[in-house]
Write a structure and sequence with these properties.
The protein has helices spanning 13-22, 70-81; strands at 2-8, 29-35, 42-46, 49-53, 56-65, 90-95. The protein is of the alpha+beta class.
């Protein structure tokens, strides 16, 4: 099993969610996050005053998939989240040792 964490732009969330749902993914966790990478934030004007926005708002999507669904899910996220601009985000993949569904006690792939 793999855990996929994708940090994407806000306005791409609906497209990514719909594409993953069409692919049969049954669950995901969404978190509003703030951070910066190579773009290092930006400056904005408010009431005639310029100020720096050091942390850019993003959305983090977390999904857990079986090993055989890893590549299709990654490809779907890449295809739907990409704009070609700096700041499109990142995807992190990590291995999971165990998953347990609290309600039933199911473990492993059955718990996904």
């Amino acid at each position: 099993m793999k855990k996929i964490e994708a940090v994407i732009r806000h306005f791409r969330l609906e497209d990514v969610k719909n594409a993953l749902t069409e692919q049969g993914l049954q669950g995901m966790t969404i978190t509003e996050v703030r951070g910066f990478g190579r773009q290092k934030g930006h400056t904005e004007m408010y009431r005639g005053t310029e100020y720096a926005v050091d942390f850019v708002p993003k959305i983090k999507i977390e999904v857990v998939v079986s090993d055989d669904l890893l590549r299709p899910v990654l490809d779907t996220i890449l295809r739907t989240a990409q704009t070609g601009q700096i700041g499109d985000g990142k995807i992190f993949v990590s291995s999971l040792d165990e998953v347990i569904r609290i309600r039933t006690g199911e473990t492993g792939g059955d718990a996904i």
